[in-house]
Structures are given as C-alpha cells and as structure tokens.
Design a protein that fits this description.
about 425 residues, mainly alpha, Growth Hormone, Chain: A, 2 domains, Proton-linked_MCT
C-alpha cells in the first residue's frame, strides 16, 4: 500500500516477525535520546559557559524551537501514511544524525535555535511518533504487550543518555559528544531501520499477530475485520472521543515537563539537594519499566479509557504528594508513584489511538496527537516559572495543575471507543 509489496521477510525467524519490528521500534525510542530534554539538558551549562548566554535566553530558544517543531510534526504523520514507516524512519534517523553533526559546529544563537528545532522535530518528535505507528500495524490482540516491550527502549534511553553524555563531555568535550551520537545513529539505527523494518505483516505475506493455521486465520481475520475499523483523520476529528482524548494526551506532556524542568528548584525549595532530584528522576525510570508490562497486560483485557482515567487519578495523587514532600523519604515515595504513573501512561496514551481508530490512517491521526504532546512539553515549564516569580514558590502552581489531570480523568471516563457503524449511519 505505501511501498512495493515485499513477499519475504529480510531474515527468517522461528517466531513472528512482528517481534523483530518491535525490537527496531524500541531502538527508535532509544535513539530519540539526542532530541529529548533529559539528554539536551546535560549540554546547557556548557553552552552557557562557552557562548556566555543566560539560562533564560537558552531556555527561550529551546522552548520556541520545540513549539515550532511541534506545529510541523503533523507533516511527518502524513508522510508516514503516504510513504510508510520504513522510508520515513530511515530518513528520520539520517536527519537526526546530521542534526547531531550540526550541533557539534554551533557558533551562535541562530545555529543553536536551528539545532534545537531539528533535535525536537527529528528526535523527540519523529523518532517517537514512528515506532508508535509501526508496532500497532503488526499487533492487534497482543498490541499492549508489544508496546510494553517496545517501551524498554524509551526507559533505557532516559536512564542512559544523561550519565553517558556527562561522561563523554568530560572525556572529549560537548562538540565531539554530538559527533559520537551522530555516528551511532548512522552505524546502528539507520541500517536496522532500512534492512529490517517492513510497514505491515501483509508486506511479507504474514497476518497480523502472526496467525498461522487456516482456521485460526479465518477466525482471527474476521475478528480484526469486525473489531478494528479504519477511520480517516477527517472522520476521526468529527468524533467527541478524538478531541477529549487529544486533551488527555496533552496533560502529561505539559505537567510532567513542567515538573521535570523545575524539579531541582522544587527540591531545593524544600531544603533537599540536587542529588535528591536526580534520585527521583532515576526512580521514575526504574519503577516505570516493569509497570509497562503490567499495563500491556491490562490494556489487552480491559477498556483502555478506564485505565486512562485511573492514570490521571494517579497524577492527582502524585501532585498532591509532591506538594507535601518535606524529606528525602517523601521524595523517594513520590519518585516511586511518579514512576508507576509514567509506566501506565507510556502504554495507554499510545495504544488508545490504534484501538479507537484503526491502523490504516494511524500516521496522520497519531501525528496530530504527537504534535499536541510536543506543544504541551513546550509550554510546560512556562507556568511554573511565572508562578514561581509571582509567588516565590511552587505551591500555587501545583494546586492549579491538579485541575488538569482532574479534568482529563473526567474526559477519559466519558470517552469510550467510538462506534464506526453508528458514526457512518449518522453521517450517511
């Protein structure tokens, strides 16, 4: 459909080839690292020292670049539907590698802005959008489990990039560190995407979920045909569920980015140290990792909007707990709870789109969702900074932020999967 049909898998495996696809998708999440805030943040102090820019100035460049990248990200989703994940994923890997090389040659604010923009568009945006549209093409009944396995790449990325960046910068400087990641992308990720990725199981003569026997194929194919209806973006946007879920996916991006960006300052305000903030961030990744597998099991068995609602209830509890933290022990408990919520949302926010609107136009639909998430992450730190400057602390903004997951929980509860048949009967 998007590319010439490929009748044979590039490698013969004793198991369903969709698991190879899942592994490469996990690599994509891992190698989105150069464009993620947890990686870029390690370079900021070195930029300040070398270029003598203020932290506010660099933060402004970063936020605007993220905003512009988010606005343009929907275009990537459209290219996915037209050209297929294999082509776009390979191109995104090459472009992100070139972006890393670009960042190694920074000389001033214009180059820095362009560097931030390309990192956010090709790294945080494209390299996370693509695997989340690819894996659902290969799995239906086991979609939750496949996304859980894929998510390992994201957790490894958030856990490894900050310390590896710190080590490499100390060893060979920040410019060569960017070169290192560019080379790694070209040597490891790009060939993997080009050689192993196929857009759909039908491209290599397989069926979704690896259906084998003729009888099972017939039953499973019938099941997919009945249950997984393919909505166009135009039709999906006419449903209430689309807009309510779209608001839901924006909330974690905004709230989590704001808290992460200001976490060190929050801990210091409570008399705690930078090391405590680092422990909290590490706990989030460590705890979130096994929770994704539990979430994958749950979303394969229960209606996803109920699990999404419970995720936001957890967000409310986490914000209230952060509000009350006064000790290292309290911060650790918060990190554990935050990690559990992170593990839930990482799967639920990605599986809801293919489960609700099918595989056929997932690139365009998920592209809109990813755009909203990037925009949320761009605006996340701003209200925290404004409230801190106005009130001299974070208590007020945390109180205000409780309203967002509260509203999202309500929206999730009233947003079951839309009925394809009902929609078309009403719009006939």
């Amino acid at each position: 459909m998007n590319q010439a049909k490929v009748k044979k898998a590039p490698v013969s495996t004793p198991f369903y080839y969709g698991w190879v696809i899942t592994a490469v998708a996990g690599m994509s999440l891992f190698f989105s690292g150069p464009g993620q805030t947890y990686s870029v943040s390690i370079f900021i102090d070195y930029y300040i020292e070398e270029f003598e820019f203020s932290r506010r100035y660099i933060s402004g460049l970063y936020s605007i670049a993220t905003l512009v990248a988010g606005i343009l990200l929907f275009i990537i989703g459209r290219y996915v539907d037209r050209m297929g994940q294999r082509t776009v994923m390979t191109a995104a890997g090459i472009l992100l590698a070139l972006t890393c090389f670009w960042n190694s040659f920074l000389t001033g604010p214009v180059m820095m802005f362009m560097g931030f923009f390309m990192l956010r568009l090709f790294g945080q945006g494209s390299m996370t959008l693509l695997p989340n549209t690819l894996v659902p093409q290969w799995f239906f009944k086991r979609r939750g489990r496949a996304l859980s396995i894929m998510a390992i790449g994201g957790f490894l990325s958030s856990a490894l990039f900050p310390p590896v960046n710190a080590f490499l910068i100390d060893w060979m400087g920040w410019r060569l560190t960017w070169v290192f990641w560019g080379i790694m992308l070209l040597v490891m990720f790009v060939p993997s995407a080009l050689i192993f990725v196929r857009n759909r199981p039908e491209d290599i003569g397989e069926k979704i979920d690896g259906q084998k026997s003729v009888e099972h194929k017939q039953k499973s194919s019938l099941h997919v045909e009945i249950e997984e209806k393919n909505w166009t973006l135009k039709h999906a946007m006419k449903t209430r569920a689309f807009w309510l879920i779209l608001f839901c996916v924006s909330v974690p991006a905004l709230v989590n980015t704001g808290i992460t960006f200001h976490l060190v300052s929050m801990m210091e305000e409570k008399g705690l140290t930078t090391e405590t903030a680092a422990i909290v961030l590490s706990l989030m990744a460590v705890i979130g990792f096994p929770v994704t597998f539990v979430t994958g099991y749950l979303v394969d068995r229960f209606q996803v909007h109920y699990i999404l609602m419970m995720t936001f209830v957890g967000h409310i509890a986490a914000i209230v707990l952060l509000w009350q933290v006064e000790s290292v022990a309290g911060a650790i408990v918060y990190g554990i709870l935050w990690g559990m919520i992170s593990g839930l949302e990482r799967i639920v926010l990605n599986i809801v789109w293919p489960n609700y609107f099918g595989r056929e136009h997932l690139g365009s639909i998920k592209g809109i969702a990813q755009t909203v998430m990037v925009l949320g992450s761009a605006f996340g730190p701003l209200p925290f900074g404004i409230f801190y400057d106005t009130f001299g602390g974070y208590d007020e903004i945390l109180f205000v932020m409780i309203g967002l997951p509260l509203l999202a929980a309500v929206f999730a509860f009233i947003s079951p999967k839309p009925s394809f048949e009902k929609y078309h009967s009403e719009h006939a």
